[in-house]
Amino acid sequence: MTSFSETTQLPGTAPGATADPGTDTHFPAGFLWGAATSAYQIEGAAREDGRTPSIWDTFSHTPGRTAAGDTGDVACDHYHRYRDDVALMSELGLGAYRFSVSWPRVQPTGRGPAVQRGLDFYRALVDELLAAGITPVLTLYHWDLPQELEDAGGWPVRRTAERFADYAGIVAEALGDRVPLWTTLNEPWCSAFLGYGSGVHAPGRTDPVAALRAAHHLNLAHGLATQALRAALPSHARVTVGLNPAVVRARSETPADLDAARRIDALATRVFTGPMLHGAYPEDLFTDTAALTDWSFVHDGDTALAHQRLDGLCLNYYTPTVVSAAPEGTATERHDGHGASPHSPWPGADHVSFHQPPGERTEMGWSIDPEGLTELLLRFHGEAPGLPLYITENGAACPDVPDAAGRFHDPQRIAYVRRHVAAVHRALAAGADVRGYFLWSLLDNFEWAYGYAKRFGMVHVDFATQARTPKASARWYARLARSGRLPRE
Fold it and tell me: Which residues lie closer than 8 Å to 395 by C-beta, 6 or more apart?
C-alpha cells in the first residue's frame, strides 16, 4: 500500500508570484497544476460491484431530461480504464488529480456499512496516482446522491446531512492515510437550486422552498462532514469545500440594478459563504425570501456547525453573471446560463433579469471574461484572509473537430485557459494566496443535462470505442504544468 506520510509536503504551500517583465510569467514553486473530473461523469460501471442508482441515474433515464437521452451508464468507462487514465495524466505532467467518490458505489443505500468493492476501486485509484507522483485531491460529493436518500426526502430534509457525515467518515477511514487534500461538497448551489429549484439537474424538482431547505442542509452537511473528517484524518490532511460563487455584475449603476446584483449575490454566494465562513446567514437573504419561508428549518446551533475550520477554499469559475431589475409588469429574461426551464433557480428574485454581455462565448453560450476570475480570487482574499485558495474548475466547451490525420486542434480552449491562468497570476501578484489550478476537464465526459453534446476535455474521448486522444490543449497544458511558466502569447 502506498502511503501519504505526515512528512510529505503537499505542493503549493507558499503564496507569491514572480514575473520577469517582457518574458514569461512564472508561478510559485510548488504551485499545484492539475485536472478535474467527477464520478458520474466518467466512471460508468453504473450497476457493477454493488453500486445502486444515484439521483443522476434516475434523472438521466427519465425521458426528456438529458440531450439525446444520454446517460452516464458507461460514460468514459474510467472504472475499468483508470490505470490507462492515470498513465495519461503522468504523460501530461499533471501534479494533481481532483476526482470525486461515488456515494452509491461506497454506501449504496446512503446508510449502513460500506461496500468494500466500491472502496477498493478508490484505494486502487489513489495508489496508482501516488505511484505516478500525482497528488490525489478527493471530493466527497459531486451531485450523485443515493436514490434511496432522495426517496426519503433528499437534501431538503435534515437527515440527509447526518447521513452524509457518516459517509464522510467511512471514506476518510479508508483513504485518509493516502489523500492529503479533501473537499466536502462540490458546488452546493447547483445541488440545491438547479436540483430542487429549476429542476434542470437531478433530482429535477421545482420547489423554491425545497431549494432553500436543500441549501441549508448542504451547509449543515458540510459542517458535520468536516467534523467527521477531522476525527478520522491524520493531522496533516487538509479539509476544504468547493464553491462556485457568482461574479455578479449590475447592468447599470442605477439603484434598482445594483439591488438586483445584491439579491443574486446573496442567493448565489452568501447563502453558503455566510454560514461556512462567518457562522451566520446574511440578513438580506432572509428579507428577500420572507414571502416564501420563515427559515424555521434552521435550528439553533446549525450555523455554528456549518462554520468549521477550513484549510483552504476551492473556487470554480467559468463566466460572470450580469443582471438588472426587470421593468414592472414584464417577464424576466432568463439568460442565466443554467439551462432552459420555466422554473427559476433564484427563489425570491422573480424581478431580476439576466443578460448576455457582448463578446466571445464558449460552446455553452457562456461569455469569456478572465477578469472575473481575478475579481473572484481577490474577493475571497479579502473576505477570508489567511485561507489558501484553489481554482478547482475552470475550462471551456469548444467545437473539437479532428483534422484529416485525426488530431484535435483546439486553439479556442488554449486561448481560454491561457487568459484565465494569467488572471490567476494577476491575483497572486496582488497578494492572493492561490495554491493551485485545476483544468476542467481531463476527459470529455457526460456533461449532465447536455449529455455528450458538450466537450470540455483536454483529452478527446470517442465514446463508441473509448479511445483517448490528447488535444493540442493537453500538450500545451502539459508544458505549463511541468514548467510552472506561462509563456508570452
Answer: 318, 413, 416, 417, 439, 440, 441, 456, 458
The verdict on whether residue 440 carries a ligand-binding annotation is yes
| Structural domain harbouring 327 | 18-486
Separation between Cα atoms, residue 78 and residue 39, nearest integer Å: 9
412 among annotated binding-site residues: no
Which among 240, 244, 309, 246 is positioned nearest to 96, based on CA atoms? Answer: 240
CATH code at 240? Answer: 3.20.20.80
Contact 40, 104 (CB under 8 A): no
The span from the CA of 71 to the CA of 135, in Å, is 30
User: How does DSSP assign 228-274, residue by residue?
Assistant: HHHHHS-TT-EEEEEE----EEESSSSHHHHHHHHHHHIIIIIHHHI
Torsion sign (Cα): 206, 210, 215, 219: negative
Q: Would the annotation count 41 as a binding residue?
A: yes
Cα separation of 141 and 115, whole Å? 17
Rounded CA separation 50/465 (Å): 25
285 domain residue, yes or no: yes
Active-site residue (options: 91, 375, 393, 489): 393
Taking the chain (489 residues) in runs of 10, the rounded mean pLDDT of each run is 41 44 78 98 98 98 98 98 98 98 98 96 98 98 98 98 98 98 98 98 98 99 99 98 98 98 98 98 98 98 98 98 85 60 93 94 97 98 97 97 96 98 98 98 98 98 98 98 90
Q: Rounded to two decimals, what is the model's pTM?
A: 0.95
The yes-or-no answer on residue 393 being catalytic is yes
| Total domains, the chain | 1
What three-state secondary structure class fits 349?
coil
User: How far is it, in rounded angstroms, from Cα 305 to Cα 296?
Assistant: 16
